[in-house]
Design brief:
This protein is of the alpha+beta class. It has helices spanning 17-23, 134-144, 154-157; strands spanning 28-32, 49-55, 61-68, 74-80, 83-89, 94-95, 101-102, 106-109, 123-126, 147-149. The strands form two sheets. An eight-stranded mixed β-sheet has the order 9-8-5-4-3-2-1-10, with helices on one face. It has a two-stranded antiparallel ribbon with strand order 6-7.
Amino acid sequence: MTCNVERYLPDDDSEVPSIERLVHQPHLEAIVLSPGSQRTRHRFRPPNNVKLEVFGRQGLTMWLIGYSNSGGDVAIELKHQDRTLRKLHTHDGHHNPDRKLVEGAHMHFPSRKYPLSQNGYSYAYGLETTIESLVDGLLYFCDRMDISILNGIQTYLGDR
């Protein structure tokens, strides 16, 4: 169910083949890691953050990191080594490098001209869904990226 990002790019830019091969490989599986009690990214604490280890073919390991803030915005990132492969954000009003506005929840992806980085521009496409929580976002992201969560999301939810 992963998306062909090429259709969202202008003629003078292109997808990054090595990243698209990682994202589109079959049979990705993930396990939810125990969130623990230490502070993590942006000082969010469980249940406002989660980390999954994602396994691909031939021993490839990626990380799926999700967090939400007190305003309810959700961000989920799929990473491999030091590269960000995809980002899902629910904040409203993302502007692509070509200045086109993407409203609502959206998925960022790297291109040759605009790799995904913390503070740089990147392209994104709108998602036709409403994401109400980090768990909703995580389940949606995994569905879109064909990632199976082996130990279930209940591991993350605990006894809330």
